[in-house]
């Protein structure tokens, strides 16, 4: 028997879950499937130990999708973004600037949450959301797009008819492939370690990004762990150095992290397993095909700097909802998809270019580039109108 829904979402990662909830809230019937159930805790095999700082516009979307209430108790506000430029090894601080949320008014820049916990809480919430059918343990297997509908096959043999398929199935998106959409990838030879630490000094809701050769080392404030202040770490390095760090025992890694962090929060102690992620920029050639829309990492992958990745993804979801709103009876109609593509393509490309450049400048060990980086940091910060417009762009104001 063939089931019928308005929208099929492939992928119940964070972006897919939020998209499904927002679409359900808008009155569509939604089926969202993912072969991988969420990890029960941080220690579980394959748990996503990244954290995400949800910037204000992303938080607003999560709230309007009816999901924020369940996440809020686990969230830590981000009130200051501290950029620290260092040189040499051990790193010596050359300059530091604070970007303060109260400079823009309106409360914190964003709220930080561990990804594994977010996915678990969202999956639990969606299991009870009317209009949304969450199927974990089964995935997208194939599609046949027609003028008026799309036929979908799932890996458990289920067949569906839908108006629209949304590919939210990650960087290797099977929907993107099935729709015949290519992607351009830029590799940097870099990898990012993601893990959690505790430290004696309170983080005071400050996210600290420390630049040195190999990339940024970022401490993102989190909730206390076993009664001690705790932060998430994202540490970018060239590939061999990342592999060497992954192989260190805990005590040696603690010493390396503490040195790399310039001791800003005191000695760092590992408080989770470690995961490693390749750092790439990847942009899909198109965001749509007949009766198909790509969102989130299926459409774009960015280096983890400035909390842009998932926040850019949530802008996709908001734009897709807007695009459908003009013809709600057929969410996969060609006009709606054209509106979505137009609304997002420029911002996605400009953001990818900006983060690509920023990453190259951050990881460089060339003296001239380093001097420019320090100069740039000071100029962006010290010229107030420039500082505020950069902060607004980082928060998601449309790039022009
Ligand atoms: C180290 C690091 C730190 C980061 N920090 C931040 C940050 O602070 N702020 C920020 O905004 N972004 C950040 N990002 C980016 C962010 O983590 C990612 O953009 C985001 O987690 C990806 O979410 P997603 O839902 O697009 O993809 P995924 O989480 O990869 O989800 C895709 C889902 O699709 C499923 N799937 C695969 N195949 C199928 C199939 N056949 N059928 C159905 N489903 C399928 C997978 O099982 C998976 O659950 C960071 C990235 C890295 C690498």
Architecture overview:
With 400 residues, the chain is α/β, with parallel strands linked by helices. The chain has 11 helices and 22 strands. It has helices at 14-25, 56-64, 68-71, 115-127, 174-178, 239-247, 250-260, 309-325, 334-363, 367-382, 384-394, and strands spanning 2-4, 7-10, 30-34, 51-55, 76-78, 80-87, 92-100, 110-114, 132-136, 140-145, 150-154, 159-162, 164-167, 183-198, 206-212, 215-221, 230-238, 269-270, 275-284, 288-289, 292-294, 300-301. The strands form 4 sheets. Strands 6, 7, 14, 15, 16, 17, 18, 19 and 22 form a 9-stranded mixed beta sheet that branches. Strands 9-3-2-13-21-20 form a 6-stranded mixed beta sheet. A 4-stranded mixed beta sheet has the order 1-12-11-10. The site of flavin-adenine dinucleotide has 34 residues, from α1, β3, β4, β14 and α8.
List the keywords.
single chain; about 400 residues; alpha/beta; nine-stranded mixed β-sheet; six-stranded mixed β-sheet; 22 strands; globular; binds flavin-adenine dinucleotide
Q: Please tell me how large the radius of gyration is.
A: 21 Å
Report the sheet-strand fraction: 25-35%
Shape: globular
- Tally of contiguous helical segments: 11
- Cofactors, ions, other ligands: flavin-adenine dinucleotide
Number of strands: 22
Average of the residue pLDDT scores? 89
